[in-house]
Write a structure and sequence with these properties.
- With 291 residues, the chain is an alpha+beta fold.
- The protein is built from five helices and twelve strands.
- A twelve-stranded mixed β-sheet has the order 7-8-9-10-11-1-2-3-4-5-6-12, with helices on both faces.
- It starts with 43 loop residues before the first helix and ends in a 6-residue tail after the last strand.
Length: 291
C-alpha cells in the first residue's frame, strides 16, 4: 500500500448513531475538540455504573440481561449472533472506517483518555489512525490525563506512531503493530480474526439485548461477561449483513491503579480505500502512546 492518503470521512459518514451524552448540569459531554461529528457515540457512564453496582459476576449480569431481553424486542427480531460468522462477514467487506473512544474511572472520577478515528484493511492488517490519546491514561487521583495528538500507521505487522501537543508532528517511533492494539481491542492479536477471537472467547454466553441503530444502520446488540483476568461486560452489535459494527469493552482491575475502563469501537463505511505509507525513518521501538 502506498500514497500516504489519510482518512477523510464525509460529513454524512461522520454522523453519530445516538444523541449526544449530557452531563447532569445539562452540558453536552465532549471527548475533545476535534473534527465535525466528534465525539463518537459513547455511553461510558452507563457501563461504568455496572462496576459501581458490583454486578460483574456472570450470574447476576446475565440474569439482568435475560430480564431486559424479556421485556424488549423478541429474540426473533434480532439476527443470531455467531462470533466466527461475524468476523468472516467483516473480513468479506475488507476495509472500514473506525473510531475508538476510551474512558477510565479512578477513585470515582471518569476521565476520557482517547478519541481516535481511522481506516483499516482487516485483510491486509494495515491502517492509519489519528486523534488524541492520553500519555498517562491512569493518573494519580486528582490529576488529569495528558492528551497528546497522535498519528499511527500499521503495515506488514509493524506499527509507527508520532505525537505532538496539538499536531502529531514529532519523530516517528516504532510501536506495537498488531490489529488488536491498533483497533483498541486490548490485546495483541496480529490479525483481525485473532484480535476479535481473543476478545470473545472468554465469554461463555451471549444474551440478546435489543435492536439499536449504529450510525443510521439497524443492528442486533448482544451482551456477555468476559471471564478473563480483568474482564467485565462486553456488548457487540452486528448489522443485517452480519458485520461487526460496535464493540463496547468494559474492564475492571486495570493496572496500575485498579481502574475501571470502557473502550468503544465502531466500524462503518465498509469497502473504503486504505492507503498506508511506511515512514521513511523511525526511532527504536517504544510503548509510548500505544493504545
Amino acid at each position: 500500500m502506498s500514497g500516504g492518503r489519510r482518512p477523510n470521512p464525509s460529513p454524512k459518514e461522520r454522523e453519530r448513531s445516538d444523541e449526544p451524552e449530557v452531563n447532569v448540569d445539562g452540558r453536552v459531554k465532549v471527548l475533545y475538540t476535534g473534527p465535525p461529528g466528534w465525539p463518537p457515540s459513547i455511553d461510558p457512564v452507563d457501563n461504568l455504573a455496572v462496576f459501581r453496582r458490583g454486578v460483574l459476576r456472570a450470574g447476576p449480569w446475565l440474569a439482568v440481561l435475560a430480564l431486559l431481553g424479556g421485556c424488549g424486542p423478541s429474540n426473533a427480531s434480532l439476527l443470531p449472533f455467531d462470533p466466527a460468522a461475524a468476523i468472516t462477514a467483516t473480513e468479506a467487506a475488507r476495509s472500514a472506517r473506525f473510531t475508538i473512544a476510551m474512558t477510565v474511572e479512578i477513585a470515582g472520577v471518569t476521565r476520557e483518555v482517547a478519541g481516535i478515528e481511522g481506516v483499516v484493511d482487516v485483510v491486509e492488517a494495515a491502517g492509519v489512525r489519528t486523534g488524541r490519546l492520553a500519555t498517562n491514561p491512569f493518573p494519580a487521583p486528582g490529576a488529569d490525563p495528558s492528551l497528546a495528538a497522535i498519528e499511527t500507521r500499521t503495515i506488514d505487522g509493524v506499527g509507527f506512531e508520532r505525537t505532538g501537543a496539538e499536531v502529531a508532528d514529532g519523530p516517528w517511533r516504532e510501536v506495537d503493530g498488531t490489529l488488536g492494539s491498533f483497533l483498541g481491542l486490548g490485546n495483541r492479536g496480529a490479525s483481525f480474526r485473532a484480535a476479535v477471537e481473543e476478545l470473545v472467547e472468554p465469554v461463555a454466553q451471549w444474551s440478546p439485548v435489543a435492536r439499536k441503530e449504529v450510525r443510521g444502520d439497524a443492528t442486533s446488540r448482544y451482551a456477555g461477561v468476559s471471564a478473563g483476568p480483568s474482564g467485565g461486560p462486553i456488548e457487540i452489535s452486528i448489522d443485517d449483513l452480519g458485520r461487526l459494527r460496535r464493540l463496547v469493552i468494559s474492564r475492571t482491575g486495570v493496572a496500575p491503579t485498579n481502574a475501571a475502563g470502557v473502550t468503544i469501537v465502531e466500524l462503518w463505511d465498509f469497502g473504503v480505500e486504505v492507503d498506508v505509507e511506511r515512514p521513511e525513518s523511525s526511532q527504536g521501538r517504544t510503548s509510548v502512546a500505544s493504545a
